[in-house]
Structures are given as C-alpha cells and as structure tokens.
Amino acid sequence: MALVRRLTQHYVEIEKNPPPLCYAKPEDPSKDMIHWTGWIEGPKDTPYTNGRFNLSLKFPSDFPFKPPEIKFLTQIYHPNISIKGEICLDILHSQWSPALTVRSLLISLCSLLSDPNPEHEINKDALELYRTDKKKYEERARQWTTMYAIQD
C-alpha cells in the first residue's frame, strides 16, 4: 500500500507541475499504479526535434529503493539508448537515489537527448558515429526521428 501511495504522490506532482517536453502517467490509475506510459518531445536544436518518443515505466515492488525500469518504445538512434529501448543512464542504475522523483527522471531523459554521454554507451554504432563524425550521427538520428517518432 505504501508503494501505491508513493506512486500516487509522484503522479499528483506531475499533474500539478508538468515537466517541460515530457509526461508520464499510470496506464490505469484506478487499477494499476505500477505500469506507466509516457513520452518525451524531442528537444529543440537536436536531431530529435519534432519527434515524440513513447516510454514505458514499470515500478518494482521495492520502489523507491530500486529504480523503475524505463524503456523507449519508439525507436531512437542514440548512443545511450539501445535498439530495444534500454537506457544507459547512471541514475537508473548505479547512481539511483530514493530521493529522485518520476518528474526528475523524465527531465533527465530529456537532457540525455540534448546531451548524450559518450562515456556510457549501449548503442556502439551510434557512439562510434557520435565520436568520429558528429554531422553524420546527427543526420542519422534525424532520419530515425522522421521514420519512427514524427506523427502525421
């Protein structure tokens, strides 16, 4: 019951003070607070501009002591996001803190799109291109954004 109460607080925080360029909510707040869906708008002046990237969030039973499992459902070309949507972000793993909120996690994911971390890759192809030919990397990321994340 404490888990549901805690997740309800996170949901209320997002509703009262929505983070810029992103959002998340329980799939069905009346029945299930564990499974959430969300999205991130591609930040301006990045290869992800105008894209909407859908997310799934699943909270473990020992949240907030363990981080949620967050995945990109929309394909994205990024050094820190795998083809399967797995995210390499320290605060979702070794640097997790129970003080982090869902809102702050979403903002961190937005920031990751603006500023990839070349020290932590999960997509080797994207990282190699990012390090050796940033213009080509941005071109490919823009192509993927157009193919997968821009709704007509």
UniProtKB/TrEMBL annotation:
EC number: 2.3.2.23
SMART domains according to UniProt: UBCc (SM00212)
Pfam families reported in the protein's UniProt record: UQ_con (PF00179)
Keyword set, alphabetical order: ATP-binding, Nucleotide-binding, Transferase, Ubl conjugation pathway
EC class (word): transferase
ATP-binding among keywords: yes
SUPFAM superfamilies hit by this protein: UBC-like
Transmembrane segments: none
GO molecular function annotation: ATP binding; ubiquitin conjugating enzyme activity
Entry annotated with the keyword Transferase: yes
UBC core domain sequence ranges: 2-150
UniProt-annotated catalytic positions: 88
Similarity field: Belongs to the ubiquitin-conjugating enzyme family.
Protein name: E2 ubiquitin-conjugating enzyme
